[in-house]
Amino acid sequence: MTDSAAPAPGAADDPAETRPAAPRPPWLRALTAVGRRWPSLLALAWAVYSLSDVGDGLEYMILFVLPAAGYLFLAVADRPRITWAVVLALLATVVILRALDIDPWPPLALVVIALAALGLVNGRLRGPRVHAVQAPGAIAFMAAGLLVLSVPPAIGGYLVAAGLVGHAVWDGFHWRAGKIVARTFAEWCGMVDLVLGLGLLVVLITR
């Protein structure tokens, strides 16, 4: 006589447990892969559209000055999750100041200086390398923007192109590090900067 109970019929051979999951069709895998790159796709579409009606390129200066200030704020706040909200708030502030006929660059420069001082005092900008470079980076991009404003537009356009490509490298550094800002923003901003920077350079050379 045996004390062991007989297994329930089909318990060990349940097809739902032994059958491997069906592989996803190629079109679904491709669609998923494309969906993961939505920041790059949106950035590419907008950059190409913008280049179709570009002027001297000086209008793009805000795209490497403003995000640099946003990166600095996020480094001090240490909250990458609010990246998009911070950038949109900064952009809205600049739009409002311009609508009121107020030059946004002096206030923006003061904000960068204040954030750099605050970050050094509270220690956030004295941390690992990616934090330590935020203040110098923001100040460098701010200085590049001021330099663009101080030279003739014919030269300023080339400086803007260089600034955009430089900020694309900055975005790539943060995307790889996965710190300070949301990776979706670093990807979007990097693609915008790279396409606009190289595209603007081609336009200026061939015009």
From TrEMBL:
The regions listed as transmembrane in this protein's record are 60-77, 82-100, 106-125, 137-165, 185-205
Which keywords does this Swiss-Prot/TrEMBL entry list? Membrane, Transmembrane, Transmembrane helix
Region described as Disordered: 1-23
Name of the protein described by the UniProt record = Small-conductance mechanosensitive channel
* The species this protein was found in: Nonomuraea thailandensis
